[in-house]
Write the structure tokens for this entry.
Amino acid sequence: MLREAREKGGSVAARRLRWRHYETAAGRRPVLDFVRKVPDGDKAAILAAMKEVRREGVRAARHLQGELFEVRADGERVIYRILFAREGEHSQVLLSLVAFKKKTQKTPIAQIELAARRLRDWRSRSREAATEANDRRLRDK
């Protein structure tokens, strides 16, 4: 049943989705910092758009390129965009990578490149952490 729902794009798999925010090696979370600085009404719109993607999956987002997607949120006088990628063993994590105010019709290449760099960094540090954990387990045996 779960497999059929996934193949049909159903919401069974989407219910398990969750957002995580990219974190720099220094511990900063740029997307979370951006959202926290936005006026309350606009913040609600951003969070509602992210919730829709969590509920509906990437069908509620726009595919940009490769593994990158974009969710759009309409603020009171401005439009916001959150660039993200699916992560995790079963793509259950929606990793927010970049947040910005929309100023042009197309998503700026610089923002897409920043999202791609952050995704590579996230994965690189995740592999390093997994290797270190495995090394510790082997030493402790």
Summary: Confidence is low (pLDDT under 50) at residues 1-14. The chain is about 50% helix and 25% strand. The beta strands are 18-21, 62-65, 68-74, 79-87, 93-101. The two ends are 40 Å apart (CA to CA).
